[in-house]
Amino acid sequence: MADVEYLQTIITLHPDFPKKGISFLDIFPILRDPVAFETLITHFVHHITSQTIPKSVRKKVDIVVGLDARGFLLGPIIALRLGASFVPVRKRGKLPGECISATYVKEYGVDTFEMHADAILPGQSVIIVDDLIATGGSAKAAGELVKKLGGVTVEYLFIIEIMFLKGYQSLDAPAYSVIQHLE
């Protein structure tokens, strides 16, 4: 796929960030390039409309959930193109009103995600989006929030998957990543 190869050339790698031993894959160069950003969004929407929706029970996506913070950059645009609602998942204490929470372990610490308690109705079809999946902890926590509210996660979407960590194995629905990073 030429679009995937194109996007791979734009992502940059920063060794030992945010701490020694971790290599940070930076998606921000994609966002600074309007053609690359449009390529990424179009790739996701094409995948969802041609692969995910036809295989789903309800044949539609009701909600796109975006994880704090890079999922906020992708989720609203994808939701708008699909005619779906956008729901943010934020770190503890960042959302007003009644929230539900899920705690998770990530590659270098522990954190808690929250979602508004009225954000998803029982039975709604949900796609969860973030920039990267490593161990799968944050995505799994978002899936737990969706499930607590009675939503059905039909797929997890990521720009990048760190293959050797096999984070997708902890998820309760299929995962799709545009770029599979082997190291």
Task: Describe the protein in words.
The protein is of the alpha/beta class and 183 residues long. 32% of the residues lie in helices and 33% in strands. The chain is built from five helices and nine strands, in the order αββααβαββββαββ. The strands form two sheets. Strands 5-6-4-3-7-8-9 form a seven-stranded mixed β-sheet, with helices on both faces. It has a two-stranded antiparallel ribbon with strand order 1-2. The protein is globular and about 40 Å long. The two termini are 21 Å apart. The model has no long low-confidence stretch (mean pLDDT 95).
In short, what is this structure?
By secondary structure, this protein is an alpha/beta fold. It has helices at residues 2-10, 28-31, 34-55, 71-82, 137-148; strands at 12-14, 24-26, 63-67, 85-91, 99-106, 109-116, 125-133, 152-162, 175-181.
Largest sheet: 7 strands, mixed
Separation of the first and last Cα atoms: 21 Å
Please report the number of helical segments: 5
Mean pLDDT: 95
**Sequence of strands across the biggest β-sheet:** 5-6-4-3-7-8-9
- Helix % is 25-40%
- Alpha-beta content class: alpha/beta
Beta percentage is 25-35%
